[in-house]
Write a structure and sequence with these properties.
Elements: E1 2-6, H1 15-28, E2 33-37, H2 43-47, E3 73-74, E4 79-82, H3 101-106, E5 115-119, H4 126-134, E6 137-142, H5 146-164, E7 172-178, H6 186-197, H7 214-221, H8 233-256
Length: about 260
């Protein structure tokens, strides 16, 4: 099982939407997917509803040192989810020694899933660091703006700390994905071009771009991939963009391989 985190220390950039769509795309390829919702807002959990009242493994339990036989919420033969819960709020007050626990907890699912996708919280803290410590890869969705780019700079520093402080030397950043771009705005397009030219980010920017489009919001509301129920030219463009981005991410994960810790 390969583990991929979606991370940005700025909220509202589309992490949960991207996580869900990569899950949709992976399932279509026949991959067995485990979702982990580390954000107590629970957007990813809302996207994949399950049976209420069912006993299941919750995200905060991944930080416990006590052994549990609780299972994720199995939604289908190809998809399961470890849901967010309010216990996550207490995790950021914990000591750094819990950072490695989720990676250890997820290891028992290594042979049962092909891909694990972690939706991380939009803030620097124990949960974000633990998600990165558990992951083989991380991708950063980002909208283009002064505040959003400041968040990316902080995230790159966090990734550096995770690698160099012995938490996870195998972690690989596979790219920054521009999202929510207004393709009709000259200012927005110029900002995106400037971003690609910056020495700090240029080589990390993925060539794929996700525009701000109404069909995406509608697909999210209906809990389905945007490339289904296509209607109209704008929807065709949105479907093409999202399929290309998700496939590019899966290709990078598949071809990059997973290195053993140094």
């Amino acid at each position: 099982m390969k583990i991929l985190s979606f991370a940005n220390q700025k909220g509202g950039v589309g992490k949960s939407t991207l996580t869900a769509h990569v899950a949709y795309a992976a399932q279509e390829l026949g991959l067995r997917v485990l979702l982990v919702d580390m954000d107590n807002q629970g957007s990813l959990s809302l996207t994949f509803p399950g049976e209420e009242g069912k006993e299941m493994l919750m995200a905060s339990t991944l930080y416990s040192t006590e052994r549990t036989d609780a299972e994720p919420d199995h939604l289908s033969d190809k998809l399961s989810i470890i849901r967010a819960d309010m216990g996550l709020l207490a995790i950021d007050k914990a000591e750094n020694k819990v950072i490695r626990l989720p990676g250890t907890a997820l290891s028992r699912f290594h042979d049962r899933f092909d891909l694990c996708l972690i939706d991380t919280p939009p803030l620097l803290g124990i949960r974000l660091m633990a998600s990165l410590a558990a992951s083989d890869f991380v991708v950063t969705p980002v909208s283009v703006g002064l505040y959003e780019l400041a968040g990316v700079a902080n995230l790159l520093q966090t990734i550096h700390v995770i690698r160099t402080q012995g938490f996870n030397r195998r972690l690989r950043h596979i790219g920054i994905l521009p999202m929510k771009i207004n393709m009709r705005s000259k200012q927005g397009l110029a900002a995106l071009n400037d971003l690609r030219q910056q020495p700090t980010y240029g080589d990390l920017i993925m060539p794929e771009t996700l525009s701000e489009r109404e069909p995406v919001r509608q697909a999210v509301a209906e809990r389905r991939p945007v490339w289904t129920k296509i209607s109209g030219e704008g929807h065709v463009k949105a479907a093409g963009e999202w399929r290309a981005a998700c496939n590019a991410i899966l290709k990078r994960v598949n071809h990059a391989g997973v290195r053993e810790p140094a």
